[in-house]
Amino acid sequence: MPQFDTQFLSPLLFWSIVSFGILLFLLKRFALPGVLEMLDMREKKIKDSLDQAERLKQEAQQLLSQYETKLKSVHEEGRSILEAARKQAQQQLEENERRIEQETQRMLDDARSEIQRDQQHALQEIQRTAVDLTLLAAEKVLARSLTDADHRRLVDEAVREITQPSKP
User: Fold this and answer.
1) Which backbone phi and psi does 166 adopt, to 5 degrees?
2) What is the C-alpha to C-alpha distance for residues 62 and 15, in angstroms, rounded to an integer?
3) Percent of the chain, pLDDT > 90?
4) Mind listing the pLDDT tens digit for each residue in 71-96?
5) Which pLDDT does position 6 carry in this prediction?
6) What is the pLDDT of residues 93-123, one digit of tens each?
7) Residue 140's Cα: distance from chain center in Å?
8) d(CA 165, CA 168)
9) pLDDT reported for residue 143
10) Is 134 in contact with 158 (CB distance < 8 Å)?
11) DSSP classification of residue 168
């Protein structure tokens, strides 16, 4: 085997080391700065992305807190509107009840007044009828015709007797 031959192995080792050294020098001189630059750029890009993500997260939290604040104020406003509507409905209900009560009282007062007028009218009719009957009875008892003055006098006396309470 020629690879294990010392005569062949020594120069092979020498040139392998030289080739490796040249390759290492070339990589270090030309490729490694580009790779390191790319890694630095990548690291910077990742760091910028993380910073931007953190900024976006903070903005999202601010927006969320603003949204929650607005939502809370909308809920409060809704509650206040609902409460105002409830109070207004209660006031209208009370006002309607008061008006109905007033209208009912007015109708009752009107009915009482009308009943009193009717009673007065009926009493006057009864008094007139009683006077007429009294005059007719008196005429028959006396068997004579009364003059207008006699009629008036008898009517006045009969009215006085009817309107005055009877004495026991």
Assistant:
1) -70, 145
2) 66
3) 55
4) 999 999 999 999 999 999 999 999 99
5) 67
6) 999 999 999 999 999 999 999 999 999 898 8
7) 85
8) 9
9) 53
10) yes
11) -
Q: Determine the length of the chain.
A: 168
Q: Which residues contact 49 (CB under 8 A, 6 or more apart)?
A: none
* CA 18 to centroid of chain Cα atoms: 91
Q: Quick one: average pLDDT of 2-16?
A: 74
Alpha carbon distance 88, 78 (integer Å): 15
Q: How far apart are CA 124 and CA 149, in angstroms?
A: 21
- How far are the Cα atoms of 123, 146, 147, 166 from residue 151, in angstroms, in the given order? 20, 6, 6, 23
Q: Which amino acid is at 161?
A: E
CA 100 to chain centre: 26
pLDDT reported for residue 20? 95
For 98, the token pair is: 């008061």
